[in-house]
Structure formats: structure tokens, C-alpha cells
Design brief:
The complex is a heterodimer of chains A (262) and B (371).
Chain A: H1 2-32, H2 43-52, H3 54-88, H4 90-105, H5 108-119, H6 124-148, H7 152-160, H8 165-200, E1 204-205, H9 209-218, H10 222-250, H11 255-258
Helix pairs in contact in A: 2-10, 3-4, 3-6, 3-8, 4-6, 5-6, 5-8, 6-8, 8-10, 9-10
Chain B: H1 2-27, E1 35-40, H2 50-57, H3 60-63, E2 66-71, H4 79-84, E3 91-94, H5 96-105, E4 113-118, E5 125-130, E6 145-148, H6 155-163, E7 173-176, H7 182-185, E8 191-195, H8 199-204, E9 220-224, H9 225-228, E10 236-240, H10 241-245, H11 249-269, H12 271-280, H13 287-301, H14 313-325, H15 341-348
Parallel strand pairs in B: 1-2, 1-3, 6-7
Antiparallel strand pairs in B: 3-10, 4-10, 5-8, 5-9
């Protein structure tokens, strides 16, 4: 147990050293005043901005996460359901897949003002809709592949044993699709925050991270901007780790989960 | 620490000297050569900048030996940030409080913008609402959804609400508008921030679905922040203090201002011609809208009691006082945050009417969609 922890520590040590080193370097560069302070704020200034703007940052983080997670849940669910339909019926695949590909090709920055117009500038769903657009496609593609790319001989064996379609689905296709599902989910977690913040650039509620970024950067308070960006990044990482943890719980048997253990 | 800083400075000086030696050789404007300068616009090309556009088209800049390039602004351009950069444009058009906030936030050394000419003497910011909502003064914001833009464009409205004793979040909801009037047109918000020369017209250029006709001014209540007393100075010409301190640059600035002032005088007297110039400069909105805008921008400038471009100490003090009272600024800006000497010198070389005391606003017919 202890040696495992030590091994973990050794695993993460280089990343931690680099991270702390970069922060220290930024602080030194800031102290030497090589750049204008608004170009590269010192990490200590960013920490101070956290203290100064804490209530607003907290409110904003809650609102932005609500949009991101709401959109993530809907996008992942809708994408997964669509993938099941695609894997089951060729007709659905022919009808839906081109549209899904087309939707994924829309630059989201162009779709954001349209969503605000459709659903209302104050409706959090207008922001979620952008997240849905972003997360839906990776889920469809990944899960559909997982459901259909099964070992043909396994299907034949099950058929020979008089397994029904439902049994093939439950006992073969879904387990096979699980790693694909989690791959899609992990991509979707980080995309969700990108989508939410970009959507916020087009107006709406005042207390959201996207607005904090816009307002602070236009006032040249880039220390606050960096504070808001840090919250966005950390939230994205936490969502990713959450997806990773669920993956480890649900499919501990999968090869990808065992790689790190050996 | 001191030694390392000294060494850094030494290295910077060396680099700076080399850079100066390299760049000044071809760029040195002597004799009849033209000097290239850039102007960062506050927004996309439109009649708000008709004076500058006309100064270029009428050859006023060329006559002063300047070759001026316009850098477009817009919703995704932080004009003040661009203007602060050491290698940024020589001149930046921006609103005074926004520039002051940027200067304060960066200690004055890293962003050292100085206002050298106050083009707009009055604020064009209004808050408009439907007459049915019966919102005629800031006190009526209570319990309403009040739209503002951010980017520092919201100070007059939020200051006005605060003056009326209202707290954002508890007494009224502040909503960030997109840069169009759809939220008001769809009645998603009760009040919308609008510039007289732009968004207010966009409402009047839209059809009222109930009547099938264009919306009329009588459909709207308008709060004028000039009258409420929270108006702040808007379009001004900024330049970097360090740039102005370099030899010859104050002269370039004076020439730039003189040509710009002449452009605005031309647009006061030849509004229709200026609308054509603006359209030729590649604006996105149509002729009807630009004609309206030209007609609304002129009264923000004229009359200019002390001559165009001169910052009135009283208006400046009001801008500072409101900024301090409402938390926009933490402290009074250092002396020299604005200067009138360059604008005064620029006015010296102009023979025409630089005050426009007898100016009368014209009338413009609204066209659907501003076409």
C-alpha cells in the first residue's frame, strides 16, 4: 500500500515540479517587469484577484457549471440514445449520421447568438444548447462504434446458443461499448466548459465566468481574467477526473484500466 | 535583487537602442515624406467615425503629411487594450472612463494612455424601454430586467441606478445585452442600453408586429443620462504618454488632431457627403442607418463651446467624480491624464468655425432595417 503511494508520488512528481517551476518563473518575470503587467500578470496577483473578487467568482462559477453540466448531461444522454438507434437500425444511421456530422461542423461561435435568439438571452438552456451541440457528436460516434464493432464470432456463438437480440445487446454489445462510452464522456467533460464559456460571450446573465473574463480583460484586469480561467480549467479537470473515477468503478475489468497498475 | 534588476534594465536598454537604430532609419519622416500612423477605432467603421473617415477622404491627413491607417474595432476588439500596447497604434479612439480604468489597473506605467482630444462633448448613451412599462427615470428600474453592455460601456447606467438608490442584484436584475436590440424587441428585458446614433435607431427601424408599421419614438421611453447627471465623456483621442514624450511625436499628434477636427467640421457642414464616405469605407449597416447616425453624432460634438476637441474641465471632473462615487475608479487619476495643449495647437491652424455655436440638428427619416 505504502509503496503504491510512493510510486504514485514519483509518477506525478515531474508534472508537479514543472508546474511549480513555471509559476515561479512567471513570478520572477513579473517581478523583473520585462513585460507590461497586463500582458503577463504575476501568479501572486492572480491569487490576490481571487481574494478580491471571490463572491462574484463563486456566483459565476456556480452559474457556468450549471450550464456546462446541464448541457453535458443532456448532450451525453441524447448522443448515447442516438448511438443505440444508429447501431440498431441502418435506416436511422443513414438518416441521422449525415446530420450529426453536419451539426458537428457548425462553428459553435456562430451558433451561439442564434441559440440566444431562439431560447432567450436569459435562458440558461440557450447556453446549454451550445454545450449539447459540442458534446452530442463525440458521444454518437464513440458509442455507435462500440455497439457495432463487436467480435463477429462472439455474435455467431450467441446466435448458435439461441440468444435473442436483447441478450446479444445486453451481454455483448453494451459491455463492448462501455470503454467507447467513457472515451466519449471524457472528451465531452472538457468540451462542456468550453461551450458554456463561449456561449456566455454573447450576452445574458451578468454573473457567469464568460462575462467575468470579458469584463476584466476589457478593463485590463488580466489578473481577474486569469483567476476566472483557472476556475474554468480546474472545473474541467475535476469533471474529467469524475468521469475517470466512474469509469474505474464501472469497467474495472477493461484492459485500459489495468495498464497503469502493472 | 537590485543587481539583477539593473542587469535586466541594462539588457533592455541595449535591446531598445538596437531596435531604435534599426527602426528609425527608414521611418524617420523628414522633409516632405509622409508619416505612417495608425488609429484604433472604437467600433466597426460607421458614421461615429465620419470625421476621421472624411479627413482621410478629403485629404486633410495627407495635407498634414500623415498616412493614417484605421484599425477596425467591434464587439471582439478591446480597443483600449490594443491602444495600451507598446507597439500598438499611435492613436486610439475610446471612452474616457474605460481608458482611465485600464490606466489605473496597470499602475499608469504599463498602460499610460492620455486623452489628447475630446471629440464628443456629450454622451450618446440612453436607456430605452416600451412606454407600456412606464419606466421614465432610473428609480423605475426597481424589480425590472435592465439591459446593459459590459466592456465598460455600462458605467453610466449602473451609476444612474445607484444614484437612484438601487442595488444591482437585489433591486433590479442586470442583464448583459448582445450588441443588438433583439432582447428588447422580444420583450425579454424591460430596459435596454442604446446609443442614440445606433441601437435606438435599430428599434425604430424594426416593424411593430401589432401595427405592421415601424416602431415610433412615441412607443418608447428614453432616459437621457446627460440629464440624470451620470453621463461620462465618451469618444476621445488617446495616445501613449511615452510615445508622446519622444521627439517629434507631439507634433505628429497635433497634425493628426488638426486634420481630424477639419474632418468633423466638414461632416457638420456636409453630412450627406460624409455618409457616402462612411458607406464607401465598408460599413455593414445600410445608408438609412448611417444617415441617421451622422445626424445623431453631430449634436454630440456641436456645439463645442471651447472649440472641437477641447476637454471641458467640468465634464472631466464629472466623469471622474462619478467613476469614484460608483466604484469604477479607486482613486483620482494623476494630473496629466488629459491635456488640451495639443488640441489647442491644432485649432490654431484652422480657419473655419471650430465651435459650431449656431449648429442645429437636422431631421432624418427612418428606413426599415436601416437600408
Amino acid at each position: 500500500m505504502r509503496s503504491r503511494w510512493r510510486r504514485r508520488l514519483r509518477e506525478f512528481a515531474p508534472a508537479v515540479v514543472v508546474f511549480v517551476g513555471v509559476l515561479a518563473l512567471l513570478e520572477l518575470v513579473g517581478a523583473a517587469r520585462i513585460f507590461q503587467s497586463f500582458i503577463l500578470p504575476r501568479p501572486s496577483a492572480v491569487v490576490a484577484a481571487f481574494g478580491e473578487e471571490l463572491p462574484r467568482l463563486q456566483r459565476s462559477a456556480v452559474n457556468t457549471l450549471y450550464e456546462a453540466i446541464g448541457g453535458l448531461v443532456i448532450g451525453v444522454s441524447a448522443g448515447t440514445i442516438t448511438a443505440f438507434a444508429i447501431a440498431r437500425w441502418a435506416r436511422v444511421r443513414e438518416a441521422v449520421l449525415p446530420i450529426a456530422v453536419g451539426a458537428s461542423a457548425i462553428p459553435i461561435i456562430a451558433a451561439a447568438p442564434i441559440m440566444s435568439n431562439w431560447f432567450g438571452i436569459l435562458n440558461p438552456f440557450a447556453k446549454m444548447a451550445i454545450v449539447i451541440l459540442l458534446t452530442f457528436f463525440p458521444m454518437v460516434v464513440n458509442v455507435a462504434r462500440g455497439l457495432s464493432q463487436v467480435d463477429e464470432s462472439a455474435v455467431e456463438l450467441m446466435r448458435a446458443s439461441a440468444a435473442s437480440d436483447g441478450q446479444v445487446l445486453r451481454k455483448l454489445r453494451i459491455p463492448n461499448a462501455m470503454p467507447y462510452f467513457f472515451t466519449g464522456l471524457k472528451i465531452a467533460t472538457t468540451l462542456s466548459l468550453i461551450g458554456a464559456v463561449v456561449a456566455e460571450y454573447f450576452g445574458g446573465s451578468d454573473d457567469v465566468l464568460g462575462r467575468v473574463i470579458v469584463q476584466s480583460s476589457s478593463a485590463l484586469r488580466f489578473d481577474i481574467t486569469w483567476a476566472a480561467i483557472s476556475i474554468t480549467a480546474v472545473s474541467g479537470i475535476l469533471l474529467y477526473l469524475l468521469a475517470l473515477a466512474v469509469e474505474r468503478l464501472v469497467i474495472p475489468w477493461h484492459a485500459s484500466q489495468r495498464v497503469g497498475e502493472t | 535583487m537590485f543587481r539583477s534588476r539593473a542587469r535586466w534594465l541594462g539588457a533592455l536598454v541595449v535591446v531598445g537602442l538596437i531596435a531604435a537604430a534599426c527602426s528609425s532609419a527608414p521611418g524617420a519622416a523628414t522633409g516632405g515624406a509622409t508619416t505612417k500612423v495608425k488609429l484604433q477605432l472604437q467600433w466597426v467603421p460607421q458614421a461615429q467615425f465620419a470625421g476621421e473617415i472624411a479627413a482621410k477622404q478629403e485629404g486633410y491627413y495627407a495635407a498634414e503629411g500623415l498616412d493614417v491607417t484605421f484599425l477596425d474595432g467591434g464587439p471582439n476588439v478591446a480597443n483600449i487594450t490594443v491602444g495600451c500596447a507598446k507597439d500598438g497604434p499611435e492613436f486610439t479612439l475610446g471612452w474616457v472612463p474605460k481608458a482611465l480604468v485600464a490606466v489605473e489597473a496597470n499602475g499608469g506605467a504599463d498602460c499610460d494612455l492620455v486623452s489628447i482630444a475630446q471629440i464628443f462633448q456629450r454622451s450618446g448613451t440612453r436607456s430605452v424601454s416600451w412606454t407600456a412599462s412606464n419606466i421614465t427615470k432610473p428609480e423605475d428600474f426597481k424589480g425590472k430586467k435592465v439591459g446593459v453592455w459590459d466592456f465598460g460601456n455600462e458605467y453610466e447606467v449602473t451609476a444612474g441606478a445607484k444614484k437612484a438608490g438601487l442595488t444591482v442584484g437585489t433591486d433590479y436584475t442586470r442583464v448583459i445585452q448582445a450588441f443588438d436590440m433583439s432582447a428588447l424587441l422580444k420583450k425579454e428585458i424591460d430596459v435596454a442600453e442604446a446609443m442614440t446614433y445606433n441601437e435606438y435607431a435599430q428599434v425604430l427601424e424594426a416593424k411593430n408586429p401589432a401595427t405592421g408599421q415601424l416602431y415610433q419614438p412615441t412607443d418608447l421611453n428614453v432616459i437621457d443620462w446627460n440629464q440624470v447627471g451620470t453621463a461620462m465623456l465618451q469618444d476621445a483621442v488617446f495616445a501613449r504618454k511615452a510615445w508622446l514624450a519622444q521627439a517629434g511625436n507631439a507634433d505628429i499628434a497635433t497634425k493628426f488632431l488638426r486634420a481630424t477636427f477639419k474632418g468633423w467640421i466638414f461632416c457638420r457642414d456636409n453630412a450627406a457627403k460624409c455618409v457616402d464616405y462612411v458607406l464607401a469605407a465598408g460599413t455593414t449597416l445600410g445608408k438609412g442607418h448611417q444617415a441617421w447616425q451622422m445626424n445623431e453624432v453631430n449634436p454630440l460634438i456641436w456645439p463645442s463651446p471651447d472649440g472641437i476637441g477641447i476637454t471641458s474641465q467640468a465634464a472631466w471632473d464629472q466623469t471622474i467624480q462619478i467613476s469614484l462615487d460608483f466604484g469604477v475608479l479607486k482613486a483620482r487619476p494623476a494630473d496629466g491624464a488629459f491635456r488640451n495643449d495639443l488640441a489647442q495647437a491644432a485649432l490654431q491652424g484652422i480657419t473655419g468655425d471650430t465651435k459650431g455655436a449656431s449648429f442645429q440638428k437636422g431631421t432624418v427619416t427612418v428606413t426599415e432595417g436601416g437600408n
